[in-house]
Fold these 2 entries.
Entry 1:
Amino acid sequence: MNLAQLLHVTLRVSAPISLAALGGLFALRVGVFNIAIEGFMLMGCFAAVVGTHFAASPYIGIICAMLVSMFMTLIYAFFVLNLNVDPIICALASISVSTGLTRYLLRPIFGTSGRFILPSDLGLRSLNLPLLEKIPLVGEVLSGHSIIVYISWILVVVTYVVLYKTSFGLSIRATGLKPEAAASAGIPTRRVQYIALSINGLLCGLAGAELALGFTNMFNEGMTNGRGFTALAALILANSEPIATFGACLLFGLSEAIVIALSSEGYAIQLLSMLPYLLAIIVALLPPVASRISKLVKATPRQS
Amino acid sequence: MPRDLHTGCTRRSKHFRWLSGGWTNLLISLVAIIIAFALAGVLIAFAGEDPLNAYRTLFKGAFGTRSGMRGTFRYCLPFVLSALSFSICVRSGYFNIGQDGQIYLAALAATWVGVAWKGVPPTVQVIAAVVLGVAAGALCCFIPAVLKVLLGVDEVIMALMLNYIIGLLSTYVLLYSPIAEKGVASAVSKAIPISLPSSVAVAMIVVIFVVYALGMKRTVPGYEMCIVGHNKRFARYGGIPANRTILKSALIGGGLAGLVGVCEVLTVYHLYFDKFTPGLGLNGMAAALLGRHNPIGILFGSLFLGALQSGSVLLSVITEVPSEVIMVIQGLVMFFATVRRKQTNA
């Protein structure tokens, strides 16, 4: 695998992570630390495959994935916001239900267990960008992805604009920072939270659709494999800023691409696969360590 | 981020006095179970089976036969331990969801002692396996706790990542290390020659349960954990070393999860195969939530989930219902078990 291919794979595999991270960002910005995105993504994967299979069109699959994932998120939101269940407990319950449900439904819907592979002509086609693909290296890296990958890049910018340039974004940020203050300023905080969490669901569904239809064309039980959690680690590292989050997700994508590249050369896959998770731990440790160090640095001159 | 974790010590909180009685908690847990069964019934009907018939089979599988009863009992015990592991950490405000990793690491340590140590008296070997396994579980729970206390790192992400890493590590060890059984397709260890008698294992669990039940109510450390979990700053003001209490409960919680892993490989399977019991941690957590962290409640919660686990075997044999339906039921129970009307300002 040469460099261009490695970067190409990086962009491809970071798309689901970055979509999930953007989803998590909306939830985090209204004050819900949503580790359930792992489960929503998995439901998205499954719904995408089901939709594609029955409608014979991957685009219907994508829509199914987004709707199902949003539905799950709304249930999650109802339990967290209205029934006051702890977000983490609720998230673990969501993940448990999603894992169980997707494994369970494989049997009645497809008559298989474990995995379901779509016929190859039903997958998302990779699109070539008209002008870019002519440029040597750049075209090879940027062009030839599925449509969701391009959408994910656009959505990073859209998220940034929505969050910082619109009044709705201001409502979101206000609700997350201080719900009481936001409410007294006339912001319908509950509604803002619901909308933000629905966006979270839509984005996670898109992430799941990319995971299932973008390259592998199948559903595999537990196929999200912790990507939702790494997306959250990226969010923590980037302090839930959209652009920086995208950068952090590229980092995870790169680590995943390196794993793919090296595993074809006969290294033990188990040890290699630890890389993204180790990276997530390091990444989650960085901000607190950095703040601790900066405090120490600030404190030293005063002591001397 | 403020978290209200139902520490079990919030009984006297004025915010939900309407919910203070044990009977109300029992009612909520029962309703949670009924709703979960009703929703899962829809799924079963979707698979083309009669839900009532399926539940009858489930019940028969769990309690109807001798082997079913034994299965229920067999699953109930590790669930109790794993629920206690979750509960004791939650009490002091530390959210331990790394049980799966702790269990696997402990099982790995116990397997290593059992297979690789040669020429040691068996009794010594068993004791060493238990001690090392428990220590491995405790260590695995201790790392995120230290990071939380020192740096304020979120323990949830840490524990989840550790779970994945330990899962991959144990697959690797079971495939390539000296303790791996060579020449088979799956990742599995060599047979472990030593064994922890089930009577000893059960006795240990009973003792731990009684110590926990009494210790949480009647001893100073139990009280300290409660106060720290309830309000860390108040605990410090009252002279309780809050961080040390959190670390202490993390060590105990991890050790309990470790004991689960040790018992699984030394008492039940006598070898370590990859991903031997997925969902032990989640089931324990669900049991703790169903039982509202009350020892007796935990016992019944574990019994319920153990019965599900045990009954699912017969369910998948007799009917066309995939046994994964119990995973859905367990998840749904977790959803509904902690529903409340009014939020407390934790």
Entry 2:
Amino acid sequence: MLKKETGHTEKVEKARKVPEGLWVKCNNCGEIIYRKEMERNLYVCLKCNHHHRINAYNRISITLDEGTFREYDAEIEPVDPLGFKDIKGYKEKINESQKVLSVKDAVVCGEGLINGKKVMICAFEFAFMGGSMGSVVGEKITRLFERALKGRRPVMIFSCSGGARMQEGIFSLMQMAKTSAVIAKFKDSERPFISVLTDPTTGGVSASFAMLGDVIIAEPRALIGFAGPRVIEQTIRQNLPDNFQKSEYLLEHGMIDLIVERKNMREILSRLLDLFKPDHIKRDIEPATYRHRTTDASQKK
Amino acid sequence: MAVHQSLEFERSLVELEAKLLELKHSHTKGKVDLKTDIKKLEKKLQDLKKKIYSGLDPWEITQIARHPNRPYTLDYVQLICEDFIELHGDRKYGDDPAIVGGLASIGGRSIMLIGHQKGRATKEKIFRNFGMPNPEGYRKALRLMYMAERLKKPIVTFIDTPGAFPGIGAEERGQSEAIAENLTVMSRLKVPIISIIIGEGGSGGALAIGVADKIMMMEYSIYSVISPEGCAAILWKDGTKAEIAAKELKIGAKELLKLGIIEKVIKEPLGAAHCSLEKAARSVKEAILVSLDELMPISIEMILEARYKKYREIGIFYNPSI
């Protein structure tokens, strides 16, 4: 039933976008850091604690118990419903992204265990057209909630997206309604939806399912908002306040529940699952049978 | 008559109209009989209008959708409702003038009517924030929708906004959350919902009062995930490419009908709604009444099932396992 570990690791390897090399530079403070060190620290800068974007499979592997991830709907692919062409055609952009990344669109969905507790999980792949939501993203998230409803499982989504995918026009806009509708249904169940916002979560994604979590968690200093800061600045012609649209700012204004550092995320999620668990449900798997990998999957061969 | 503000492609029409007026003027004043000339010119004007308005491109339609003389929500309310009492405020923070709502009577039925509201003169434009709502606008709409649900009144929404307001306060007070909440609540609201895009359907700010059982668009309105200008700025890195973006995005009523996103296109009078408010209003009223007649006899369970199914099925993708 569980996906073979090797296949998953291969995918992680392929999905890695960071260029090879022994050293990496922090996007925030510019510190040069030994790659292995950075990976062990879950792509968080050792010096400034900047949380770098990570790809979907890495996100899943640092969240779930080792080898427990089973992917759903990996085969669903985007098409070009409008025949959209800007400087490049949409089809061409899809092909290019699919070639460098090991995903067919901007989300990876599936199920797995966190400390032995079964969850439905979805992680965004920002490298795929800015993690934008089109028909495929909307459909996969909808199916995930439908499965969760059927199997009475909690759902967690790690958002990382610029918003709706313009190239699919009105279909993208309607995915906001579609995902929000399935969540309305899901909330009839007694299972929680935990929404984790990572840098960035904006536009049509933040204005639909991402803000509909029973619990909303953000990584530190993530950009979260409806309109992008540049658009706001141009509209109101004022400088924006310090920290504007950052996780800390949202927490202060009552828009999210918690800010959780990446290294603590798994533990917090696990505790939330425990606290949300209906009394009559025992662990899905006994503790002795699982083991968590603290380091990143890509280190393994 | 209001100051006639003309669009680029309307210019030849305006010139002809001026000529016609001049002719009529000298006819009533003068001794020469100009009747035949006037008739000829009137015919010419009509033909030209027909020609121009049958071949508008998406960018021209965008201009009409934003036309400064185009009827707004409260214009329609005045023309189609026997009664309307506006209700104010979200009971949480404030009252957003960019969204209006209240109980209305139309064709003898009482409904909850909610719509974006733009302003016409500069002062009113600012007061209405150019029809761009803040979170409290969406929360007021939500409050009114819950009220409609409890009192079993169907909801009719008029959509006409460039988009939700991108401002500091809007973000602070949770623009995203306000929109998302409306989407999720509307998907299950236990009364029929009818939406009409009367002008601009600007992205999430439009959708936030637009999850409906029946969505209709005025012939020269637009509905889009992003404004053509915004799209051009991002994808072409050039805001002046909006004309092309408008075409690529497929934002016109006819296109969206073809794509199965909306249920009906409401025909506008020749020269678009701003040329004859009464005619446009009559069509809107009829469309609302017909839709109410269709939806009201159906059980709410069936309506909700159909509403969910409609949104569940939206999206085009390739699924090799099917």
